[in-house]
Amino acid sequence: MCTAINGIVTDEQVRMDSAETAPKSTPGTRDTTPVTSAQAPDLTDGRDEMRAPVDQNQMVLTADPESVKAAREFTAETLRCWQLDALMDEGVTIASELVTNAVRHGALHGGPGSGKVGLSWQRHIGRVICVVTDGSNMPPVLMQADMDAESGRGLHVVAALAAGWGWTMVGAGEKAVWAVLPLP
Predict the structure, then answer these.
(1) Is the pTM value of this prediction over 0.90?
(2) Strand pairing class (8-9; 4-5)
(3) Helix (DSSP H) and strand (DSSP E) numbers for the chain
(4) In what order do the strands lie in the sheet containing 55-62?
(5) Sorting pLDDT into bands at 50, 70 and 90, what band is 136?
(6) CATH number of 55-139+153-184
C-alpha cells in the first residue's frame, strides 16, 4: 500500500496523524473524514450490497481553488501507485470536476478556504471509486449549461466518463459525491 505520495498525506498517515494530534471534537464542528465504501453502492453488478475496499487513499483539502491541483496530483499518484495508469486521464478529470464543485458549491458558507473537502480513492475488485465530501447538504444538480457559460458542465463530464455517479448524505450538513470507474 502506498502511504507517502510526493509529500501528500494519504490514508494510513491520516489515521496515524489524527490519532496522535487530532483535537477533541466539540459540539457544532463537523467531521471531515472522507466517506467509506459502505456509503457508496456497488454499481458494477446492480446490487445494493456494500463491500470494503481492497485499498484506499484519502486526503483532506481546504476549500479553495488551489486544492483542485493538489487533488489532480493526488489522484494521479494514487492511480499510478495502484498500477492503474489506464484510468489516469478519466480519474484525474473526475476528481478535478468533483473537487471543483465541492470548493465552489459545497464548502461552508464562510467563503473560500473556510471549509474542508475530503477526497478518497477506493480500489475494489473490478472498480475504483472516487468520493468527494464537503460541508453542504445541498445535492449536486445536473443541469444544462448555457452555450456561452464558462462553467456548469462538470457533472456532465463526470457522467460521461464514469460507469455511474451519485451522492449521499453522510452526516448532518455533509454530503459525499462519488463516481465509479471499472478496472481495465
Answers:
(1) no
(2) antiparallel
(3) 4, 7
(4) 55-62, 116-124, 127-134, 174-182, 164-171
(5) confident
(6) 3.30.565.10
